[in-house]
Amino acid sequence: MQTPSPTCRIEILARTEHCSVGYCRRCNVFHVDLGTVSLKLHALQVHALGGSLNQALQVFKRAILQGEAPGVRPALEESIH
Question: What does the DSSP assignment read for 21-71?
Fold first, then answer.
């Protein structure tokens, strides 16, 4: 995980087993940690990333439900419930 700036005071906004999202009011930056990957993003970038991930997940779900990706459906169904 990348070390935040010494002046950062990160407030955790969301946390799951695999990801956390924090925000520093001082530097106006979101800190996204996903496993060994850490990102520092501005609000517009977080919004764009969220939209892209949601769109990709919807496409993926449709493909699974239509049987276009055999063998993946049970794992997906488990992860979205």
Answer: EEEETTTTEEEEEETTEEEEE-HHHHHHHHHHHHHHHHHHHHHHHTTSSTT
- Both 3 and 19 in one domain: the answer is yes
Domain count, the chain: 2
Q: What is the domain range of residue 6? A: 1-41
Q: Which is it for the CA torsion 68, 46, 22, 5, positive or negative?
A: positive
pTM for the whole structure: 0.69
pLDDT tens profile 21-53 = 999 999 999 999 999 999 999 999 999 999 999
